[in-house]
Design goal:
alpha+beta; Nuclear Transport Factor 2, Chain: A; six-stranded mixed β-sheet; 4 helices; 6 strands; globular
């Protein structure tokens, strides 16, 4: 296995490592739309992060204010709230359909793929549709055991309106 990263101009979305990463991102989107939060949580390793920053330019997630900055403990707590039904957001959660596309590989090694993509999420609740648009970055840790063992080491959701008043979602982005 090589650990040298291919440069962005040398990377094709047809690269089998990139295809594995894209398939994991699509699997994540499908789990979220089905509200299978327990299975979704298992896509992340213990050291993984799920981040929704406010500042559209920041890379210092630990040092800036975020809408969401979840490590394993916070993901566990968030999923518990979503599945136990005690949180009003979980009881009256919107139905969602998301499309993730426009995949651009940033870097690729045999151990990790970093992908940028676009997500459009339509949420339907109480007779109303809302649109949530975001640029995503996934850092996918590839497993030597094969695609079923690949994990999302980091997901960053940069909402296009992150600096505006954003309503409570009642679902995961």
């Amino acid at each position: 296995m090589t650990s040298t990263a291919d440069t962005t101009s040398d990377i094709s979305v047809a690269d089998p490592r990139v295809v594995r990463a894209i398939e994991l991102v699509w699997r994540e989107a499908e789990l979220l739309d089905r509200k299978d939060y327990v299975a979704w949580k298992e896509l992340y390793p213990a050291d993984g992060f799920y981040v929704v920053p406010i500042d559209p330019e920041t890379e210092d997630f630990a040092g800036t204010l975020n809408m969401i900055y979840d490590d394993a403990r916070m993901r566990d707590m968030r999923v518990t709230r979503m599945v136990e039904g005690y949180a009003i957001a979980a009881v009256d959660a919107a139905r969602t359909v998301r499309t993730v596309s426009r995949f651009v590989p940033e870097s690729v090694t045999d151990e990790e793929v970093v992908l940028r993509s676009a997500q459009i999420l339509i949420a339907f609740k109480r007779g109303r549709h809302d649109i949530w648009a975001a640029d995503l970055r996934h850092r996918i840790r590839l497993s030597a055991e094969g695609p079923k063992s690949d994990r999302i080491a980091e997901k960053v959701v940069r909402l296009v309106d992150s600096q505006e008043a954003v309503p409570a979602a009642g679902f995961l982005l």
